[in-house]
Amino acid sequence: MMLSRFAESAFWLGRYMERIESLSRLLMVTESFAADQDSDDAWAPILNVFADTKTFEERGKPLTALNVANFYISDAANANSIAYASHMAKENARSLRHLISTESWRQISVFHSGITTLQRRRFALSKLSEICSSIRESCFTFRGVMEATCYRDEVWRFNQLGAALERADQVTRLIDIKYFRFDRDDDDQAAPPDVAWWNTLLRSASGYHAFQRRYSFNADPADAATFLLCDPYLPLSVTNAAEMALYQVKRLDEDFDAGPGQEIKRAGAALRERLKTPPSRLSGRTLHRYLDQVQQEIMGLANAVNDRYFAPA
Q1: Rounded distance, CA 85 to CA 102, Å?
Q2: Are 26 and 135 in contact (CB under 8 A)?
Q3: What is the pTM of this model?
Q4: How many CB atoms lie within 10 A of CB 147?
Q5: Are 255 and 282 in contact (CB under 8 A)?
Q6: Deepest in the core among 17, 110, 218, 313, taking most CB within 10 A?
Q7: pLDDT digit string (tens) for 175-223?
Q8: In sequence order, what DSSP letters do the residues of 220-252 get, joined into one string?
Q9: Pick from 74, 66, 93: which is nearest to 23 by CA?
């Protein structure tokens, strides 16, 4: 059995790299969503989704598209930024240098160097989509190198477990970026249909063409929410990510005698049940509340993993 600190480093390496990819996707979706708006207020949702409004205000900068983009890309003091996640990913990889492939270490070093260079230069908002696309592609490259070169031991399993949990959490935030406001609204209204926005969301999750195959061309936006949350075959769906996380727990148990314990089993069962029983119509306040419930279940599973494997009593 490996030392818990190495297991934890592998887990968080997976989470931070997945977080970087998801942040770049969220920024691209926000930019697309804001393109048809008359003010920079359209950038407020991403701050709310990550509960970062107060932290951003403490920077003393006005709410503009460029300032929010810099806050999430270059601000290393922001724990939810790409710069911070890149630094933490490399530090976790550093502690695993003797346990991961040389190619993986080299790739994350090159990636981190690129993010550091990005921090040192100013960029125009017109370049945001290009920058985020480049970051996402670098994350895909790292994932491919890991997949092709890493030994399938506990390090691999914990890394994949962390990535899957982060993916599940981040997809709920991606969907919720348009629906957080229903926390404040008094009436239990449904959001007006916004086909263009949902198409953008599906494309960002690499699910547009799959959705068109799965549903008719006149599908309701609520179908897109169900697809992104509950479809077991879409790699970026919450259900697919949750099942991948639980599969890694199973492999740790069966291959390495690292039994999950009752809390992980309970949390995993609760998350599975929540995803199997969504509301009949996922829209507006109903969708926001459901996303909040799913996020709580994911957090419960992540906490159970931490208590069992990284901080045992």
Answers
A1: 21
A2: no
A3: 0.93
A4: 11
A5: no
A6: 17
A7: 988 776 555 444 455 555 577 778 888 988 999 999 999 987 667 778 8
A8: -HHHHHHHHHH-TT-TTSHHHHHHHHHHHHHHH
A9: 74
